[in-house]
Amino acid sequence: MNLxxxxxxxxxKGKKVLLRVDWNVPLSSTFAPHESLKLExxxxxxEDLLKRGATVAxxxxxxxxxxxxxxxxxxxxxxxxxxxxxxxxxxLPGSLERPKELENIRVVLDKAKPGSVYLLENVRFLAGxxxxxxxxxxxxxxxxxxxxxxAFASCHRAHTSVVGVARQLPAYAGASLIAEVEAxxxxxxxxxxxxxxxxxxxxxxxxxxxxxxxxxxxxxxLIGGAMAHPFFxxxxxRIGKSFSEKISSAAIKKMLKRGNLVLPxxxxxxxxxxxxxxxxxxxxxxVGVREIIGDIGTGTMMDWATRIKKAKTIVxxxxxxxxxxxxxxxxxxxxxxxxxxxxxxxxxxxxxxxDTLPLVMQSGMSEWIDHISTGGGAMLEFLxxxxxxxxxxxxxxxxxxx
Length: 402
Description:
This protein is of the alpha/beta class and 402 residues long. It is built from 14 helices and 15 strands. The strands form three sheets. The chain has a six-stranded parallel sheet, with helices on both faces. Strand 7 (195-199), helix 7 (208-217) and strand 8 (220-223) form a beta-alpha-beta unit. Helix 7 packs across helix 13 (376-384), helix 10 runs parallel beside helix 11 (330-344) and helix 11 (330-344) packs across helix 12.
């Protein structure tokens, strides 16, 4: 899918731009490096708009509130973004669903000096956001002359701030959104082979569709984490007290028949999932009845490293162990380093997912990976649906400045 960027030579002096970003990050005193990526990748687009003289109104969601909740206000987010970028970002409160407050917001933007930036309140506070309500889309569109979507991580949601408003204004893709689509689009086109996909995490149900698609397109699909447990059970392996999601046995057995599905050769099991637990490597069919699987084993690490070294294209989403506990993070960190090392060589490596990015950063080799996607769910749905995400389809064939 070819997404149009705003033409570079167009002056935006006197124009108002509504920019959808995905700044859904935790507001804490311990802001981790991987959490800053979503903000950092938006700054280039904002700075470009400011150089052209635009007034910019930013929209984002924060958390999943269903109504106003001060804990999820974007006011602190505006201050955080300002500290990170040196861009003066003004918080502009008010609900777009209340006529008087909408008019106040509109007046502020109309009177703003060219080069001003405002961050609107959390779009998830709006009742019509998740239902793509036409009236809300019109309210959003009334604030600006142009809409730009730079929020790949939100493009799999048919929400008003992603889809509805894009159909009301001349709409373009932002720089970071285009970069995401180009990198992930490579995986859908003609990736160099061998092409290896590594999928981990806890819930298999949320990744069944993408697994089926990857089994059709990748040469090998390596499955780790608790996602592997239903496959172990389908092979009549006992997994002790390990978590295992209930999935249709017919669907699992059908996948097991595919010659390119690869499960761990061994696992790291322990009596409890806690730091310093007495863990040991064991074959998947030898896990004790009172044990819990917490990571892939060393034999699997060596096996998968050998496969990675031969790969020309690699995609990874989801940790292969309980990585928030150091004792069970070794497998995921090992993979991060192996993928990074291969990516710096002759392979094209893509990594994504909110639980995966911290591991990549912790590996100390993140700069070697060709592309780090900030969209976990969006990345998987992009691959599963051949790039056809609601937010991207809404931008298709749009463009122009009114």
